[in-house]
Amino acid sequence: LLGVTREPLAVAAPMLGFAAASIAVWPAGPERIPRVAALLALGAAAGAGLVVFAQSRETRDWTAALAGRRIVPAAQADLAVGAFLAGRDDVLIDAISAPAVLAGRGSALGLRLPTQPAFDMTRLTKRADAGYLAVRRAGEASAEADALHAIFPDLHEKGMPNYSRVYDHGGWRVYRRDPSMARRGG
Q1: 142-170 average pLDDT score
Q2: What single-letter DSSP state applies at residue 137?
Q3: What residues does 112 pair with on adjacent strands?
C-alpha cells in the first residue's frame, strides 16, 4: 500500500512478531484464551489469503513445490537469459530490476538500460528500434518493476511487429528485430 515492498508476505511477516509480543504481555485471565484463539485464527486466515490471493513469484513457486512441480529459481532464469544475450548488442532490457542478467551476460556493454538516454527515448516514443527486446512474463512481481514491461505491457504475450521470438525460458522472452526491417530502418 505504501510502496515499501511489492511482496505482501514481507510486510505480513513482521506482524507475527508484534502479535506474539502482544500476546506475551496480555494479562492472564479467563478472557485471554478466546482472544488468543481469535488472533491465531485471524492470522491463519490472513496468511492463507495472502498465499492464495497475493500471488507473487515466490508464493507461486512455493505452492508449485508443495504440489511436486519443478520450478526454476528466478536468479537461475535471469542468469540463463543473460548467458543467451552474451555477445549480442543493441539489447533493450531492464537489467536494473534483474541484476543477475548482467552476471549471466558478463557485461552491460551493448545493453540499453533504463538509466540511459536511448531507453528514455523508447519510453517517450513508445516505439521499439533496438536489435533485441528482452522482457519478463507479466504478472510476476519482478515483471511489475520491469521498465520495459511498463512501456510495452503486451510485449511478452503478443510480441512486437517486425520482431520474432528467439528465446523463451524461465519467464523471459527475447525478441529479435527482423534483419530486413533493420536495414530499411522501419
Answers
A1: 87
A2: P
A3: 92
Phi/psi for 166 (5° steps) reads -120, -5
Torsion of CA 125, 90, 161, 137, to 10 degrees: -90
| Residue 45 near residue 38, CB atoms below 8 Å | no
Helices (DSSP H) in 54-154: which residue ranges?
57-66, 74-85, 99-105, 117-125, 141-144, 147-151
**Beta strands across the sheet bearing 132-136:** 111-112, 91-92, 132-136, 172-177, 163-169
State how far Cα 23 lies from the chain centre: 36
Q: Within 10 Å of residue 46's Cβ, how many Cβ atoms?
A: 13
Rounded Cα distance, 175 and 112, in Å: 14
pTM above 0.85, yes or no: no
The length of the chain is 186
- Please give the Cα distance from 56 to 87 (Å, whole number): 32
Place of cell 516514443: 125
Give residue-wise pLDDT tens across range 17-60. 777 777 778 777 888 888 878 877 887 887 777 767 766 666 77
Q: Which amino acid type is present at position 108?
A: A
Per-residue pLDDT, 13: 67
Per DSSP, 27 falls in state P
